[in-house]
């Protein structure tokens, strides 16, 4: 049986996650300990080390990132899942460098918690039953293979961080260099990686976000076109109109004349 620790300075969040863990009812989870701070968590760890830790990444006095760093040095087998907010990108990026399993955005959804908890538990299991075959009548031969080691960060998690960061920035104010730095990737490598993961170049992805936002705004007849242009990152209304026509096949004015778009 595995020991789980939940670390967060907010009691409601600790209790909510504990309740969700009970609902998940994973048979590998035995004991659940809760700590209101990273310092308290370290005190508990001296008595009984947890196998899996779900920890807030930003806490007073000692943050979760410091806790992860220290545990990575003394107890590298301990598996961490971090809790973060939408503005914690730099903390999450740094946490991945120390081998965390993954991260969860607050408020934590049951399905996301279950997925990450299952991943952490699998990584705690030294051997994984991969194949069973009959060696003789009535007898099974079990082939045991070691589990695959987790990479420093998962592709799915990193692309989510990138998308959330882009959407949190004002339209038109995010650059490829800025985002590649966010996830600690080489500029050229990130450009190729992003296209492989999204099916679009970085510039096309940004353009699509801006134009889809413009379409929604154009459906509001109280907004002038120059106001919409500004909201999606264009200082020049003519540049906006040209970009919109290239994207939609119609100018903003023509789009508004379509029945139902007025």
TrEMBL record:
InterPro entries: CheY-like_superfamily, Homeodomain-like_sf, HptR, HTH_AraC, HTH_AraC-typ_CS, Sig_transdc_resp-reg_receiver, Tscrpt_reg_AraC-type_HTH. Residues 160-258 form the HTH araC/xylS-type domain. The modification 4-aspartylphosphate is found at residue 56. Its main location: cytoplasm. The keyword Transport does not apply. Gene3D superfamilies: 3.40.50.2300, Homeodomain-like. Residues 3-121 form the Response regulatory domain. This is Response regulator. It comes from Paenibacillus aurantiacus.
